[in-house]
Every structure is written in structure tokens, then in C-alpha cells.
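Hi R.,

Here's the chain you asked about this morning:
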Amino acid sequence: MPSRIEIICSHLPSVRSFADIGCDHGFCTQFMLENGRCERAYISDISRESLKKAERLLEEYIGAGTCVSVCADGMSGLPEMPDLVLIAGMGGEEIIHILSDADMPPLFVLQPMRNTDKVRAYLLSRGCRIRKDYTFSDGKYYDLIVGEGTGGDEYSDWEIAYGRDNLKNPTPDFIRKLKKEQDELRKLLENPALTGESRDEVRERLYRLEAITDAIEGDI
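And here is the predicted structure, written out as C-alpha cells:
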């Protein structure tokens, strides 16, 4: 099974300039530079200690001037708007915060750890076009959004909640995630302490997930 990093990298196109925001170890930037997918790369992290990990990995490229290290909040410290921005491994609200403080990049790849629905809604409100939007697994479940900063798009409420590709072309990973969540919700409903509005909310979410599963399995 491909790793999370491998799957993210498979969606990174060749560009002139690339930025990895919240770069952590810098593996995605290493992939871009080693494979000639960008002429210049920026690694950025708000944490100096986290940034040092990527700097050690990319020391050769930093020395050659093809990789620039920036300790800053989001994209605020970048000397230019890159052609492609990657933001992976953060909560959805943090991703929105980063994007809100700058112009939208021409191309982006986002991998929220939670609140992906809020990220989708935000991108649509900024006039972005979402090209790819699906769930994958490498032992845990993750969402991936690939898109463009302009072009506009329209999603239904259900597509915002679950992802367009997940609904139109569901993968086995997405189906397994749906069933796992349903099992968890059924266990919650077995708890007599869950009452009132909380129980109603769990029932409503379970209903939605069962409806999606039924529709998917009816098409298989």
C-alpha cells in the first residue's frame, strides 16, 4: 500500500516554483527537487524546530539555491506566489487560516486531517476550481483536494460534506471509511446516556451515511 506521502506526491505536477507550507520533514519537497518537478522550492513552517528537520534533509538544495527555507506563519514569508502550494497534515481550519491571509495560488494540493467539509466550502467561496477530491488510506483515512485558484465551481451540500469524487466515483477506501463510521455511530446509539439533540444528530448522520452507502452499492 502506498504511503500518505507517496500518494500526495503523485498529485504534484511539474511547475516552475513550489511551496510546501508546514513542511515538517520536507519529504514532498525532496520528491519535487529530486525528480526535476520544480526549478525552485520553498519550505515554510511556523516552528523553527520543525523547519530544521526539513533543512537537514534538503541541505544540498538549500546550498545550491534551488530550495529556500522560510520560518513564517503560512505563506506570509514567501518572496513570491509559487505556481503550486502544498498544505498537508494540518486541520482544515488551520488550512483555511493560511489561505485567508494570501491570494489563492494558481495550483494547490491540500490534505486536511479534519474538517475537510469546511475546506471545500471555503475554496468554493474563493472562486476556486476543485479538480480532484477523494478519500484514501494508508492504514488511516485521509482526504485529498487538488485544485486551481480560479475558474469557479459548484458543489451540492452532500458533495461539500463528503467530496465529489467520493460520491461519483467511490473508491474501496471511501466505502470502508463509510462503513467504519456507521459502525461507530451505531455503537454510540447503544449508549443510553446519549439523549435529546445529541442522539438526534447521531441518527441523522447515520441516516446520511447509510443513504450514501445504499446508493453506492446499488450502482456496483
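One quick note: The radius of gyration is 19 Å.

Cheers,
M.
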